[in-house]
Write a structure and sequence with these properties.
Layout: H1 3-9, H2 15-42, H3 50-57, H4 64-97, H5 109-124, H6 129-152, H7 160-182, H8 186-197, H9 205-208, H10 212-224, H11 226-232, H12 236-241, H13 246-268, H14 274-286, H15 290-315, H16 323-342
Helix pairs in contact: 2-4, 2-15, 3-4, 4-10, 4-13, 4-14, 4-15, 5-6, 5-7, 5-13, 6-7, 6-13, 10-13, 11-15, 14-15, 15-16
InterPro entries: ABC_BtuC-like, ABC_transptr_permease_BtuC
Keywords: Cell membrane, Membrane, Transmembrane, Transmembrane helix, Transport
Main location: membrane
Length: 347
């Protein structure tokens, strides 16, 4: 066999064909999301028919069934937005830290946002939606910086295991501080405890509207960071050699993740494990190219949170399980599997 034949035999597939399969999976994921959204509107404590759904979509709420559907529509929208934000934030954090265990919940970011909101409510009497959102984003940013600094101490710098341990310890400490702040305040304890579980129940369009600009900004910055995250995946030295400003790239991408996590926590409460589970599953379909992985993670996160919300309504009828509880049941075993698969000694 000639050398030319060997070269021809090893020629990679055309670029169009290489991108065709991820694009097909992305379309299938979007179609699955449409089905889940329809199920979310249809399934609940009260059974509804197609006529009730169409009437509610048209703005009619003359019957109890139509009113039930009208309440489920903003809930479905919030689950889509929050799940997409958390899935995208998880993929960003894993790319920025090159840490397979990175997740807004595991790294303490969600709990930092939660503590900031609780302190704001208890000590400063914040009440407006925008005050909640800004406070949560500041808390998320402070927690992320704190965990990264703690995880960077000692030999080896910020290894995945050290970051995970620092994040877990920080989450526990912040959770204890939340309890300490809330205990003396019986007037806010009930609402704070319900919010701390994490959920999308009781969503309204008025509650969703203030958070949309923050989520939109986070989505845009995150997706624009895809190429730079691909460079970071090669290592800091090689990324710098390719002309990337490593520190600035990390800061911008991390800002997008903090914006998404903080805004989502402000409106839904802390929801864990979505950002851990979704990027790992999406890599099976999209590979490691962040130009594909980030959109996949956004759609996958939306689908996972919406499916978890539907499951929570079904298994506890006529009551409901908050989505934060369902995602914890899914995510905790997945976290253990990831740790065993990566081998703790290699992290």
């Amino acid at each position: 066999m000639t050398s030319g034949a060997v070269t021809a035999g090893r020629r990679p597939p055309p670029a169009g064909r290489a991108h065709r399969l991820p694009a097909l999976w992305l379309l299938l994921l979007a179609a699955a999301l449409v089905v889940l959204a329809a199920l979310s509107v249809a399934i609940g404590t009260r059974d509804v028919g197609l006529g009730d759904i169409l009437a509610a979509l048209g703005g009619r709420i003359e019957t109890i069934a139509e009113a039930a559907v009208a309440m489920r529509i903003p809930r479905t929208l919030l689950a889509l937005l929050a799940g997409g934000a958390l899935g995208l934030a998880g993929a960003i954090m894993q790319g920025v830290t090159r840490n397979p265990l990175a997740d807004p919940g595991i790294l303490g970011v969600n709990m930092g946002a939660s503590l900031a909101v609780v302190v704001g409510v208890a000590w400063f009497e914040i009440a407006s939606a925008y005050a909640y959102i800004f406070t949560a984003i500041l808390g998320a940013g402070a927690a992320a910086a704190f965990v990264y600094v703690i995880g960077s101490l000692g030999r080896g710098g910020a290894t995945p295991l050290k970051l995970a341990l620092a994040g877990a310890a920080t989450s526990i400490a912040f959770s204890s501080l939340v309890i300490a702040v809330v205990l003396p305040r019986a007037d806010i304890a009930g609402g704070i405890r319900a919010w701390q579980v994490g959920g999308v129940g009781g969503a309204t369009f008025e509650r969703i509207h203030p958070v949309l600009p923050f989520l939109a900004a986070g989505f845009v910055v995150a997706l624009l960071s895809a190429r730079k995250l691909n460079a970071l995946a090669l290592g800091d030295e090689l990324a710098a050699g390719l002309g990337e400003h490593v520190a600035a790239t990390r800061a911008i991408a991390a800002f997008a993740a903090i914006l998404l996590c903080g805004a989502t926590t402000a409106v839904c409460g802390p929801i864990a494990f979505v950002g851990l589970v979704v990027p790992h599953l999406c890599r099976l379909l999209a590979g490691s190219d962040h130009r594909w992985l980030l959109p996949f993670s956004a759609l996958g996160g939306a689908g996972l949170l919406l499916a978890a919300d539907i499951v929570g309504r079904i298994i506890a009828r006529p009551a409901e399980l908050d989505v934060g509880i369902v995602t914890a049941f899914i995510g905790a075993p997945f976290f253990i599997w990831i740790v065993r698969r990566q081998r703790v000694r290699d992290l």
